[in-house]
Design goal:
Blueprint lengths: L48 E6 L2 E8 L3
Antiparallel strand pairs: 1-2
Amino acid sequence: MSYPHFLVGGRVPEDPIVFTATPGQRARIRFINAGADTAFRVALGGHRMTVTHTDGFPVVPQDTDAC
């Protein structure tokens, strides 16, 4: 079976969700891969992020540009 689209927040890549923030503001974003049969690389276009949990468990915080 082939899937032509993967949705993020119910939207296709051509119609992304846009977050607006001021410089220095922090946003907590939780990604849940409900499909579980496909691994995805996550990046926030030109921004750094800190990974604090994986698979629902806390980890030593790691700064990265993608995970």
